[in-house]
Design brief:
- With 498 residues, this protein is an all-alpha fold.
- Helices cover 75% and strands 2% of the residues.
- The protein starts with a helix and ends with a helix.
Length: 498
């Protein structure tokens, strides 16, 4: 058992990656989905084991082929990567389990093995980014997950997904290229790709211009991948026109993985070694975070397409995450990492409820959803619960991270009051756009576009929708797990500062 535990970091990647080509061969109906779901659940179990291990103080470091770092490829899992691994594997598992009926509608039977193979490659790529301690291998896994993401976003029957994927591909390719250029410059100056070794060596050349240029390329490239405002233009259409189960998966975790890499580089590699980088990091990100919160929320208020509304809400929520990080303090970074977790809970539950609505309503325009709650009360109620968490109502998970964020902003004195005002304004705007959803579902009159004989979402899907919705309540009341992981991760990241 001990020997197996030592291999958990590599198994986190190997399990879905080895299953992906096998799934292509599974032609009988439903078998490809079952294999993909089983592989995703196995990855979730591994992630839970890793979380339990890091909480108990286990140091997970794995040298591939027995070649020790910095000469060999090293895999590492700490509190930060374990927290995001839990999000990725849980989002994949619940999206696959809840989305079977929806995916059967959206994906032709003969294409399902290829679709689920690509899904597992996305999962393997995202997990690989999180366990890799090597800058170039992060790029390799980033490309695996990105290329497979383009396939699953465009995998449905909605042809509008094709131009959305093209924009996603262009922006993603630019982001990955910028990141690779930055890594090449760092390697040219330090001679290493291992992040820990890079941290030790970079201080010798920190004042050299290639390192400063590398910091810019890496930060901008990862900001593109993470849909940081105003580099978010690929995100709304990708979430809107993707198959609904894909929206659940990607909205809950995809941008968080890119933010994970961005924070790793900026706090571990660059901020310790580049003079004034801490101030530059805050000065660069804080205005963008404020604009993301205000502009993303404002656009969401005027959107009628339900998925697009939630996509612009995600732009705003990424702003909250960046705002906490830009404070460069234990409290701010803890709030940032907590909001990664809590936003994944809320947005995953919201998109699950959207998937339930889409089973009965072909058009997800708020003007065509009048009276949906009278026919689908449990689905609509779950959406309302998740919406309360997104707003940050006390008793929900979203309240905890926003409370931490307000507390961290107040520690900055008078300037912090302006940030608190932005946080409150963003939350009030979230009240408006969530109320528009509730009003359409519960209080609007039915229209001629309302389908006849509308009934609740399938029972299995509804059970998982409520599991996700109740998780927002549970982690709003029992906060120890995400709070401890976020706090230890924040202390670890800030421990690298001089």
């Amino acid at each position: 058992m001990i020997a197996l535990e030592n291999h958990l970091p590599v198994l986190q990647v190997v399990v879905p990656m080895l299953m992906a080509p096998l799934v292509v061969l599974l032609r009988p109906r439903g078998l490809a989905w079952a294999a993909a779901a089983a592989s995703s659940l196995m990855s979730l179990v591994i992630a839970i084991q890793l979380v339990a291990g890091v909480l108990s103080g286990t140091d997970y470091s794995y040298a591939l082929g027995g070649w020790e770092a910095p000469y060999g490829i090293e895999l590492q899992v700490d509190d930060f990567s374990a927290l995001v691994l839990l999000l990725v594997t849980a989002a994949s598992s619940i999206a696959l389990l809840a989305g079977k009926a929806s995916l059967d509608q959206a994906i032709e039977q003969h294409r399902q093995p290829l679709f689920f193979s690509a899904w597992l490659l996305v999962l393997a790529g995202l997990a690989g980014i999180l366990v890799s301690a090597d800058a170039f291998n992060i790029f390799v896994f980033m490309e695996i997950s990105s290329l497979a993401s383009y396939v699953i976003v465009a995998g449905g029957t909605d042809r509008r997904a094709l131009p959305a994927v093209f924009k996603y591909l262009i922006m993603g390719t630019i982001g990955a290229t910028f990141y690779l250029i930055g890594i090449g410059l760092v390697y040219m100056m330090t001679g290493t790709l291992n992040l820990a070794d890079m941290e030790l060596r970079i201080h010798e050349v920190a004042d050299q211009r290639p390192i400063l240029v590398a910091a810019g390329f890496i930060t901008v490239g990862l900001a593109l991948k993470a849909a940081v405002f105003p580099l978010h233009v690929w995100l709304p259409n990708a979430y809107t026109y993707a198959p609904h189960a894909v929206s659940v998966f990607l909205a809950a975790c995809a941008t968080k993985v890119s933010l994970y890499v961005l924070l790793r580089f900026d706090f571990v590699v660059f901020q310790q070694n580049l003079l004034g980088h801490e101030l530059q990091f805050a000065a660069f990100l804080m205005p963008l975070a404020v604009l993301a919160i205000l502009v993303g929320s404002a656009v969401a208020i005027y959107e009628y397409n339900l998925k697009r509304l939630l996509a612009y809400s995600s732009v705003a929520q990424i702003g909250y995450i960046l705002l906490g990080a830009s404070l460069v303090s234990i409290g701010g970074l803890t709030a940032s990492l907590l909001h990664m977790f809590n936003h994944a809970l809320a947005k995953g539950a919201l998109f699950l409820a959207v998937m339930g609505l889409a089973m009965r309503f072909a058009q997800l325009d708020l003007r065509n959803l009048g009276g949906a709650a009278r026919h689908m009360p449990w689905t609509a109620a779950a959406m309302a619960v998740a919406g309360l968490s997104l707003i940050g109502i006390p008793g929900t998970a979203g309240f905890i991270s926003k409370w931490y964020l307000v507390d961290a902003a107040l520690d900055k004195g008078i300037p912090g009051l302006a940030l608190v005002a932005v946080i409150v304004a963003g939350s009030l705007m979230a009240v408006v756009y969530i109320w528009r959803i509730v009003e359409a579902l519960w209080f609007a009159e039915e229209t001629e576009n309302t389908p006849q004989g509308v009934r609740e979402a399938p029972a299995a899907m509804l059970a998982l929708i409520w599991l996700a919705a109740l998780a927002n309540i549970y982690f709003g009341l029992v906060t120890e797990l995400p709070r401890e992981l976020a706090t230890v991760s924040a202390e670890s990241l800030l421990g690298h500062l001089p």
